[in-house]
Recover the amino acids of this structure.
């Protein structure tokens, strides 16, 4: 798959609470898959404004991005689902990466 | 003299009336009238011509001129019967087989325009044929289209067949392509199929009786180019509405997306505040951007309009726009926002009536009106004016509207709200969990914030990078020790350094750490370095700072079990070049109360200032000490303490210019001291509240200087927080 042709996906979700501290009620949350020489990444937008730019795999050392669009998309959706469910902020843990089967991009 | 006065008065009245008349003369609009279909019904010595027209209003009158001469010698004038969208001309006393010329003269009540010259001839042999009209062609695709017709008059004979015929050349007949309609009734609709793409066709409805076939008027259409079929209905916007007079409006519409197909109808629909029945005005244009002009509007009404465009998939509409041609339109803009003033610019357009008063009104609630809030009127005659609002409160929110009064009614602009400048303002929110006792350091214009305590039983290990220039967060590599709190951190030479702290080990206290790490933002990698070499025996009495590209950790600790046993203040230095810790300096504290619960340290030039608040065993009864260490002379000097009330525990600090500041004092019972204290090294004195009061209070917060601004937030205030505020001294 050619990185330059990475598709951009937008997912709008409804309002949610962010860990009881940031009230995102009535806000649109969306994500976009990005690509760079390090692999795939994602961006999360709240009400159209870029809030998180994640060009590499969160929580892990190094600059490697995700190996595939699918991995980046799964992780972005996990981050957004945490916001949507109002359970957690969009922090990604190493265990979650493991359970999603996320792989680092090979340079 | 009296006669002269009367004459002058009369002249004044007439000249005024003349001027008013001149000013109000509307533009010629009637030439934009569109004549659509023309149906001519023949009899032996008369014809009846029915013309449908498109015009925003009903025409005032239409006259027809008929003559046997193309020059209209000895012409007859016939007044037509005018309806909303049609007019009918009955011409009598005609003779068969003679060519008659005719033209129309129509008026909107203001101006008069004449049509082109046309002609007709009564063909007696055709009088027994049915009279048919052809409907407009719709649903045009690459290979299909829909058309139909109406039998207006069967000429007294039974209709044997009806349908449509078409051809790629003018005047199609039933000898060319045609489809008969099998149903009953005088109206019929038929789908044409197997057409050629991108081809112009001519189509007519027809009806046949025993005397022959009568044809309707000819319609033209062009099939779509192959591959050019629409994929969606058109997208339409109304770009602007102008009201040149109190009774007219120009609606500027733009088809921003045709949907990929041909637009075969466009225009506007509108209704008024008095009637919700829709009025459609079709525009005969091939341009995506078009204007529709409305005349004879009611100056007392509000109008609601939307543009539309139709392709073969359907009709797309714009959003509804409101306009009131008889009322002024006010545009408002707020500029020059300072701590205590703003400038409000107003532009009045659509000014078709006499405005007796105008200005702005403002207040601090959003139910702003001319009657209930502060009003500043503008005395000038200009339609564009600026008004300054002064003596506002810094950092407060204000609502502002412009107003204009005409004919006893108030028109308002949109309501804006603005916040006057305040040097402390909200900037962003840490994406992770709200936390206190977090680590924080800054590299260039990026802040790195992470770890800390979310709740007593939950320490954190995530690290976030905040790009202050682009206002964007990125989650970075976790802190390598895992979930920790009270890690000290600083940055020099483009790298972060973090160490000490407590690691979660099943208890709230956690395990004391001495590990020390270097963080490289380029590689996003933490590397363990030499462990911290000093001693630690307390929790909150540590702080870090940098000086001359080296990292310093400062601690205090008690020697014995009571304050009288004394204590020590130690500073250790880490040199990134050698990756080694060495003891930098120490100061013996003759009296060390219980423990130092607040430790603020910072550097001005080559001097280190150290402010400590001691807990002496009784909450609400704290002591303080303030020292200066001159590195050049290895000299500790006790300095004047600030007038901080004894009830407060920890204080935050920052350095701007040559001054050391303390702020964010915390009273253990939850009451906070928002006073700021500024230290003047030259006079060894303190002043209070030289800067604006912080908007928030935080205990164990993020406290970073980035690009001359203080980033302050997170931490604890009735629960852990994640919002970050900025103090910008340039806004003072």
């Amino acid at each position: 798959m050619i990185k330059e042709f990475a598709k951009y996906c937008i997912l709008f979700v409804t309002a949610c609470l962010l860990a009881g501290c940031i009230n995102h009620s009535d806000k649109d949350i969306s994500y976009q898959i990005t690509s760079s020489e390090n692999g795939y990444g994602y961006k999360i937008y709240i009400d159209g404004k870029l809030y998180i730019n994640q060009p590499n795999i969160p929580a892990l050392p190094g600059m490697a991005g995700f190996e595939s669009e699918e991995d980046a998309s799964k992780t972005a959706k996990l981050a957004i689902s945490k916001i949507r469910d109002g359970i957690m902020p969009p922090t990604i843990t190493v265990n979650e990466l493991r359970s999603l089967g996320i792989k680092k991009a090979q340079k | 003299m009296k006669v002269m006065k009367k004459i002058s008065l009369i002249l004044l009245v007439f000249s005024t009336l003349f001027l008013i008349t001149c000013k109000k003369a509307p533009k010629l609009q009637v030439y934009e009238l569109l004549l659509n279909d023309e149906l001519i019904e023949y009899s032996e010595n008369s014809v009846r011509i029915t013309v449908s027209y498109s015009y925003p209003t009903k025409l005032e009158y239409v006259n027809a001129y008929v003559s046997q001469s193309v020059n209209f010698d000895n012409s007859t004038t016939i007044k037509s019967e005018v309806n909303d969208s049609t007019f009918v001309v009955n011409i009598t006393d005609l003779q068969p087989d003679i060519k008659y010329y005719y033209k129309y003269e129509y008026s909107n009540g203001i101006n008069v325009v004449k049509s082109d010259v046309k002609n007709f001839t009564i063909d007696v042999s055709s009088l027994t044929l049915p009279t048919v009209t052809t409907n407009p062609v719709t649903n045009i695709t690459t290979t299909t289209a829909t058309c139909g017709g109406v039998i207006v008059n069967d000429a007294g004979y039974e209709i044997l067949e009806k349908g449509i015929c078409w051809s790629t050349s003018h005047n199609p007949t039933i000898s060319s392509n045609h489809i008969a309609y099998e149903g009953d009734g005088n109206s019929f609709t038929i789908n044409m199929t197997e057409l050629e793409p991108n081809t112009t066709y001519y189509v007519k409805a027809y009806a046949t009786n025993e005397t022959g076939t009568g044809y309707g008027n000819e319609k033209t259409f062009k099939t779509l180019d192959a591959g050019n079929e629409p994929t969606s209905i058109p997208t339409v916007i109304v770009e602007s509405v102008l009201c040149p007079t109190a009774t007219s409006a120009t609606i500027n519409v733009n088809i921003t997306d045709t949907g990929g197909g041909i637009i075969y109808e466009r225009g506007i629909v509108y209704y008024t505040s008095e009637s919700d029945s829709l009025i459609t005005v079709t525009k005969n244009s091939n341009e995506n951007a078009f204007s529709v002009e409305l005349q004879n509007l009611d100056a007392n009404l509000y109008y609601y309009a939307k543009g539309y465009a139709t392709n073969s998939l359907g009709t797309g509409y714009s959003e509804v726009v409101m306009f009131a041609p008889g009322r002024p339109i006010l545009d408002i803009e707020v500029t020059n926002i300072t701590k205590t003033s703003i400038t409000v610019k107003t532009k009045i357009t659509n000014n078709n009536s006499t405005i007796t008063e105008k200005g702005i009104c403002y207040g601090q609630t959003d139910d702003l009106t001319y009657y209930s809030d502060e009003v500043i009127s503008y005395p000038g005659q200009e339609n564009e004016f600026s008004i300054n609002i002064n003596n506002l409160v810094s950092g407060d929110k204000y609502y502002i509207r412009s107003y204009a009064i005409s004919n006893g009614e108030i028109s308002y602009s949109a309501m804006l709200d603005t916040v006057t400048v305040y040097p402390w303002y909200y900037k962003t929110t840490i994406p992770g969990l709200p936390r206190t006792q977090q680590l924080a350091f800054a590299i260039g214009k990026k802040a790195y914030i992470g770890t800390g305590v979310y709740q007593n039983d939950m320490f954190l290990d995530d690290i976030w990078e905040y790009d202050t220039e682009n206002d964007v967060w990125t989650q970075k590599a976790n802190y390598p020790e895992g979930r920790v709190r009270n890690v000290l951190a600083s940055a020099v030479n483009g790298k972060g350094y973090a160490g000490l702290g407590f690691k979660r080990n099943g208890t709230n206290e956690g395990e004391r750490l001495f590990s020390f790490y270097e963080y490289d933002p380029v590689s996003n990698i933490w590397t363990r370095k030499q462990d911290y070499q000093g001693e630690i025996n307390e929790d909150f009495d540590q702080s870090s700072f940098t000086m001359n590209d080296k990292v310093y950790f400062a601690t205090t600790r008690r020697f014995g079990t009571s304050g009288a046993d004394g204590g020590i203040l130690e500073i250790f230095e880490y040199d990134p070049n050698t990756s080694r810790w060495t003891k930098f300096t120490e100061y013996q504290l003759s009296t060390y109360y219980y423990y130092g619960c607040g430790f603020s340290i910072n550097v001005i030039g080559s001097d280190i200032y150290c402010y400590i608040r001691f807990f002496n065993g009784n909450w609400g009864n704290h002591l303080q000490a303030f020292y200066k260490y001159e590195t050049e002379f290895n000299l500790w000097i006790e300095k004047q303490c600030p007038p901080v009330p004894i009830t407060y525990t920890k204080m935050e600090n920052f350095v701007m210019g040559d001054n050391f500041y303390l702020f964010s004092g915390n009273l253990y019972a939850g009451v906070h001291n928002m006073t700021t204290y500024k230290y003047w090294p030259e006079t060894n004195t303190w002043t209070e509240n030289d800067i604006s009061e912080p908007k928030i209070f935080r205990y164990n917060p993020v406290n970073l200087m980035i690009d001359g601004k203080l980033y302050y937030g997170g931490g604890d205030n009735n629960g852990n927080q994640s919002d970050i505020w900025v103090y910008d001294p340039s806004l003072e």
